[in-house]
Amino acid sequence: MVSSLAPVRTRSWWPDLLAVVAFALLTGVLAEGFLLAFDQRVADWAFAHQPPVLYWTARVLNYLGQGGQVLMPVALILTGLLVWRTRSVRAALPFVAAFVLTYFTIGPAKLVFDRAAPAFTGPDKTELFNPAAIGKYGMSYPSGHMGNVLVWYTVMALLIAALLHRPLTGREWVLIRVVPVVIVFCTTVYLGFHWVTDSVAGVLLGLVLARIIARVPWDSIPLPALRGWERPAGLPASRI
Questions:
Q1: Which of 62, 65, 85, 63 has its CA nearest to residue 150?
Q2: Measured distance between the N- and C-terminal CA atoms of the chain, rounded to whole angstroms
Q3: What is the pLDDT of residue 134?
Q4: Which of 16, 132, 151, 200 is deepest in the core (most CB within 10 A)?
Q5: What is the mean pLDDT of each run of 10 residues along the chain (240 residues)?
Q6: CB–CB of 1/228 below 8 Å?
Q7: 223-226 — which CB contacts under 8 Å span 24+ positions?
Q8: How far, in Å, CA of 132 to CA of 186, rounded?
């Protein structure tokens, strides 16, 4: 029997507000030139300590945060399974919401801030609003890896719980929602794909987006009549 999604009544907005303020403060600090030397020191250490075994292990684990190559396809498969099982269009709503939210926030932010990645060989590579990094070279801030890992694992947690017809246990929640975030943060910085502050900014932005997805009562959103396809999909409330 499919259970409906009850509205999340106790989810506070304070963490969202604090994350937005922290993101704004971090961006302002970086724009003023602070923490740039710290980012560079961490990147220099990482590049100097990459034996083949650790490097390739980190490369493999970092795929846990690859949105277009891994996370979106997996979420799409889970979405398809739930749509097929429930015959409900609501099962597709979290996937659509995650795609729209990430596309219109993380992507544009990267274009606005024009920060190069640690591997960039041009001038002023740690700085925001770097004219030399405009275009494909200036897509480092905030980290899409971290935004993706927070948002898409939130979606997958919702879908998996619905497919299992029960809320996730504490251990399952940690494995799906916490472990990938830690792994991707560490490997992204270690591999030099992003500066440390890029990854922190990605976590803050991704946290806000993930909490938006987690608090939506997907099974009670009003939808037009779709010949039965608007029925509940059993998407449970998600913790974050």
A1: 65
A2: 26
A3: 78
A4: 151
A5: 39 90 97 96 96 96 91 95 89 94 92 92 91 80 94 95 90 93 97 96 96 89 68 64
A6: no
A7: 223/89, 223/90, 226/89
A8: 27
Q: Which residues pair with 16 in a beta bridge?
A: none
- Which residues lie closer than 8 Å to 211 by C-beta, 6 or more apart? 11, 15, 16, 240
CB atoms within 10 A of CB 143: 31
Report the C-alpha gap between 92 and 193 in whole angstroms: 31
pLDDT in the model for residue 39: 97
**Cα separation, 162 vs 152, whole angstroms:** 15
Could you tell me the two tokens for 84? 């097929």
For the chain, give the number of residues: 240
CA-based nearest residue to 162, from 3, 39, 40: 3
Side chain identity at 40, as an amino acid letter? Q
**Residue 2 corresponds to which tokens in the numbers above?**
């499919």
Contact indicator for 197, 37 with CB cutoff of 8 Å = no
- pTM (2 d.p.): 0.89
Domain ranges, ordered by start, for the chain: 14-220
DSSP β-bridge partners for residue 139: 115
Instruction: Output the CA–CA distances (angstroms, integers) from residue 87 to 51, 94, 157, 218, 230, in the order listed.
Output: 50, 15, 20, 15, 8
Spatial distance between the Cα atoms of 38 and 25, rounded to a whole number of angstroms: 17
Report the distance separating Cα 191 and Cα 119, nearest Å. 10
Which residues make beta-bridge pairs with 72? Answer: none
Element at 210 (helix H, strand E): helix 196-215
